[in-house]
Amino acid sequence: MKLQGRSAYVTGGGGGIGRGIAIALAREGASVAVGDIDVAGAAKVADEIGDMGGKAIAMPIDVTKFSDAAALVARAEATFGKLDIAVHCAGVISVVAVEDLSETEWERVMGVNAKGVFLCCKAALPALKRNGFGRIINIASVSGKDGYQRLAHYSASKYAVLGFTNSLAKEVAREGITVNAICPGVVRTSMWNLLSEEWRQERETLEESWERQVLSFVPQGRPQTPEDIGDLAVYLTLAPSLTGQSINLDGGLMSH
Asked: In CATH, what class is 7-185+225-249?
């Protein structure tokens, strides 16, 4: 119970990597506000934490709206007495060539993935500063370190998260707050199901496509899991001198 007495929120916590992080934090004793635009998903994860004997609440959030981000922070503070840990996992993806990419889709992906991180950090900082302790964890991607065809807009949004993370870490380095980013590799979530479908070869099943992606991308030959990401998030909450970093968790895919 390394996080006993700590409190956190996780955006995008209703499933996938966000769920893995919320469960990992709760397992170590943290109280968790599970935020997601999918209210039912957030409530299900909060119930899971409650069934584990932990303390959790669920709250709807559209991370592209500062008012929603501020409301999540306020609710976490009011419920748990303070805010220690802010995890920003909400994200969207689509697969489309630049030539066919609409302004609307560019703005949607950048709005959730990049602007959403900015707005949530902006909302969380006053609470973390009041507390004199803070851990901000932004979920980026290996696509924020290397581009992939038909994912230019997604990669751009994740590159933005890495630059923002490093800059913010320097701003608050003497406030007792650390800011880091996790760059997951190949994790079986709804996003990777979409990619497996998009990259499926003729006469290949979705499962066969997924297995081929794992073998072609990951040197270890096995996917990463939401639980892996959750374990790293817990570590980042316990590392006072680790800040401004973007850490790959990708089975050896990236070297930078």
From this structure: alpha beta
